[in-house]
Amino acid sequence: MYKLDYYGSTEKGRRPKNEDSFLIFVNNFGNLIAIIADGMGGHKGGEMASKAVVKMIKKELIEVNFNNYSSEEAKVFLLTKIRVFQKDLKRIGVEFPEYNDMGTTLNMNIFSKDSLFTINIGDSRTQSFIKKDINKITIDHNLATLAEIDPRFAHYKGQSNMLTSSLGPNKNTNADFFLTKLVSDNGYILMSTDGVHNYISDISLMKIIKSNSKTMEEKVDAIIEKAYNNNSNDNMTFILINYKKNKEKKQKGK
């Protein structure tokens, strides 16, 4: 079993308002659930979409015991819930036409025993940091990624601000599921919106996270500040989760 320490923060940065939303909570079965949703800039209701999705997730997952789920069961359950959330957003769009074009990314992590279940829609990102390496867990849903894997879209190289998947009443929604086995005695899970990870290098991230003189809160604040100082022009949200394996004490013989 793992002991979890975590902290998250969000800043509007240079934008007039913050369309990012995030939430970290422990459900009634002890599963830590961390969520980031980046409301789509330029679309009316981006803030509404991100807040609505975060609220929906807490309501739906607060009473779910993921400790009893295999990875395949978790995948089927969570992908089914995504369709439910999309229908709920569509109902909001029908009732309030001004929000019909709203959309949001969704990046969610659920800790279950020694496993991490990850859902991703859009270009908010989950990464892992163990010892000396930062590795992506999720794949960004944007034209820049599509250009890397499909030569037909090579002319979109570098266009990371154009999403190929998002969650909303009338959005093209493709959700990815990832299983990560927690095998290290000590590691970190990093979650961020593109206003952070597009403006800070892995070297800078690792340097801040490895600092023994900083608390978790100070590390998150320093990462957001670094992205801002590197001219991030977007809202900035970052969640840092540290997992450490509980060491069982050996009983001495009589």
The largest β sheet comes out as: 5 strands, antiparallel
Mean of all residue-level pLDDT scores = 91
What level of helicity do the residues show? 25-40%
Q: Going across the major beta sheet, what is the strand order?
A: 1-10-9-6-7
The unreliable regions are none
Output the radius of gyration. Answer: 18 Å
By DSSP (H or I, 4+ residues per run), the number of helices equals 6
Molecular shape: globular
Count of DSSP strands? 10
Distance between the terminal alpha carbons, to the nearest Å? 28 Å
SS content category? alpha+beta
What is the N-to-C order of secondary-structure elements (H for helix, E for strand)? Answer: EEEHHEEEEHEEHHHE
Q: How much strand content do the residues show?
A: 25-35%
Kindly describe this structure.
The chain is of the alpha+beta class. It has helices spanning 46-61, 71-95, 143-149, 194-197, 202-209, 216-229, and strands at 2-11, 20-26, 32-38, 106-112, 115-121, 125-130, 133-136, 176-181, 186-192, 236-245. Strands 1-10-9-6-7 form a five-stranded antiparallel sheet. Strands 2-3-4-5-8 form a five-stranded antiparallel sheet, with helices on one face. The radius of gyration is 18 Å and the shape is globular. The two termini are 28 Å apart. The mean pLDDT is 91.
